[in-house]
Predict the 3D structure of the following.
Amino acid sequence: MTYGLYIPEMNQRKVKKSKAVSLGDRVVLDQERCILCSRCVRFTSEVTKTNELGIFNRGDRSVLSTFEDRPLNNNYSLNTVDICPVGALTSKDFRFKQRVWFLKDFDTVCNGCSTGCNVTVSYNANGVFRVRPKVNKEVNGFWMCDEGRDVYKHSNQEYRLDQVVEKRADLGGAIVKGKPVAAALQEITRDIKKFGADRVAVVVTAQYTSEEYEAFFEVFAKKLKVSKFYYWKNNEETFETFDGILLRGDKNPNTAGLIKAFQKYGITPGTFQDYEKAAGQMQSA
């Protein structure tokens, strides 16, 4: 028993099943762990209604798998990893990156779109490693989309933008980096006062918190008297779309907060197309 060299007491030979079976772009199955509970099968049948998964063969030869030419690639596939009771289904993105007992969790809200799914983020000193849904029956229920699982990636230090990026007209449109944020704000304030607020246009997106909008408009609209604001929708064509479960075309976490800020400060923003038209007229003049 110490070395595992004992003679099995069972009459039947052991059935060995496959490890690391790819079910799709995001999910890996260890068949030897699977207890055939069919939770994942019912998820694809009842929630996403895409029906990629099934239990095939009979008796002790039964295995979980996908139907031919139908990989598990729906936009909610990683929820099957969450509901697997034995860890047979694993995420390709998170698999073997960290031991979970080395991670800490905190609860937050997904900023991938305007649905606002409640999520739990797992992290340690090396960065953020995964995002999972947190139950909120009023918003996202038990689920979240696969796109939302990727929002953590740009938050890690190596991807964070910690310097100002300028497109310099005096350098032929060249992109210049390296200026500290505080220095850029001082330069912007100085230029607005120098050239006049009526010659300044500000483009705003719905990517930020209500507190940040409050501080932003307090400075630009109230203190510096800027009046030309433009609202950029980052995907105008699909902005109003909805997949019927959670994922929305509005890829901004705080559209409602930005609209309320516009209303509070009496701002009627132009569209990004209005901005492009005005910028073109200024350049031609």
Observations:
- The first helix runs from residue 39 to 46.
- The mean pLDDT is 89.
- Residues 169 and 235 are 26 Å apart (CA to CA).
